[in-house]
Amino acid sequence: MPSRKTKYVISLQSTQGTNPKISFEVSGSKAEKILNLIQPDVAKHKKKTEPTSATLERFFTNEN
């Protein structure tokens, strides 16, 4: 049974909604190149959407 090379689907869409979304299939090596190219944006997105913890302790303190 021949091994098939992994392919990936890339989708691009304007955040303004002015153009329709485009999707296409690329080889694994092209997908890696694209990921390397957008790595700074991926890191920014991860940092921006990372959950943060908060405490409610200040709302439950009893100061009279």
Low-confidence parts, pLDDT < 50 over ≥5 residues? none
Strand residues, percent = 15-25%
User: Quick one: biggest sheet?
Assistant: 2 strands, antiparallel
**Tally of helical segments:** 2
Side by side, the strands of the main sheet go 1-2
Fraction of helical residues: 25-40%
Helix-strand sequence: EEHH
- Head-to-tail CA distance between termini: 77 Å
**Overall 3D geometry?**
elongated
Mean pLDDT: 88
Structural class: alpha+beta
Strand tally: 2
Return Rg in Å. Answer: 22 Å
Features:
64 residues, 2 strands, alpha+beta, single chain, two-stranded antiparallel ribbon
How would you describe this protein?
There is one protein chain. It is built from 2 helices and 2 strands; from the N terminus they run ββαα. With 64 residues, the protein is α+β, with helices and mostly antiparallel strands. It has a domain at 7-48. It has a two-stranded antiparallel ribbon with strand order 1-2. The chain is elongated, with a radius of gyration of 22 Å. The termini are far apart. The model has no long low-confidence stretch (mean pLDDT 88).
